[in-house]
Amino acid sequence: MRYDFNPQNPEEMQRIISEKVVYSGVYEDTDEIQDLVIPEGIEEIAENTFRDFQSIRTVRLPKSLRRISAAAFSGCKNLKEIYFKEGVTDIADEAFAFCPALLSVKLPSTVVRIGEGAFEGAASLGVLELSEGLEVIASGAFSFCFTLRDVVIPESVKLIEFSAFMNCFALEGVKLPSGLGLIDESTFEGCRSLKAVDLPARLFRIGRRAFKGCSSLELMILPITLMTVGLDAFSGCKSLKRLALPKSLTELEDSDVFSGCDSLTEITFSGDKRAWEFLNRGKTLTVERSDLSLFSPKVSFLDLK
User: For residue 27, which of 76, 65, 66, 64 has the smallest C-alpha distance?
Assistant: First the structure.
């Protein structure tokens, strides 16, 4: 963050910084701050400022705030509500991690980046509203948010990093932005209630373990731009019955892509038999069930030109 001060006058420098930044030690963890109000004029909450405070129930942030630094509210076990205002742009790594009582998060349109593990372990987070303007959801940002049910990712999002929503056990539906090219490693791994995913029209890669353990997923229609499906990408998807693969696909990293897909009986491939054999390196695709038995799903060829 940039401040306007005279570097030759350290006292003035410290005064200006202290008026714009909240540091650890300014507040004490007492019952008087159950409803924490950060005053106007503050532009940054420094690292670890309120880490492990047990008294805070609600946080009200000012319009002047631009950055919430790493682990600023991490471990605030009784924090239930955060009231954001337009202005904040960066929620840094683990800023609100392991706040198990947090119920809802509504982020303003000024937020550009959600840092690594920013809301990791917010076990009671049931409502999440992300606004247009958001560009990056970093790794593990919402992992282990056990009660989160539905997520709509804004069209402005350009990157969702690995494990972003891993082990969100209650997550049922996800809408991804149409311009997203990559579903990274383990993005939705362990989302055992996930039934519907609106995949991006320009998707070119599904990373390793991206949907591993999504045991409620029944149908996947992959976009015509898809080129690569990573190792274990759909392993453990026990309810997956049908899969439509595009002819643009050039790599299945391994047959383990579909291991544990006990219900998979039919694959539709939009290319021809020759392209399918090339994709599978001349081998017949076999799937290993949970009981270790092997079977080959029926493959239909659309031979689209």
Answer: 76
Question: For the segment 82-122, what is each residue's pLDDT rounded down to a tens digit?
Answer: 999 999 999 999 999 999 999 999 999 999 999 999 999 99
Q: Do the Cβ atoms of 180 and 200 come closer than 8 Å?
A: yes
* Same domain assignment for residues 197 and 150: no
pTM of the shown model = 0.90
**One-letter amino acid of 161:** E
> In whole angstroms, what is the distance from residue 267 CA to residue 186 CA?
23
Task: Tell me which DSSP letter residue 248 carries.
Answer: T
Whether residue 181 contacts residue 158, with contact meaning beta carbons closer than 8 Å, is answered with no
CATH of the domain at 103: 3.80.10.10
Sort strands 136-137 and 182-183 into parallel, antiparallel or unpaired: unpaired
Q: Which domain holds residue 269?
A: 192-204+215-305
Q: Per-residue pLDDT tens for 189-231?
A: 999 999 988 889 899 999 999 999 999 998 888 999 999 999 9
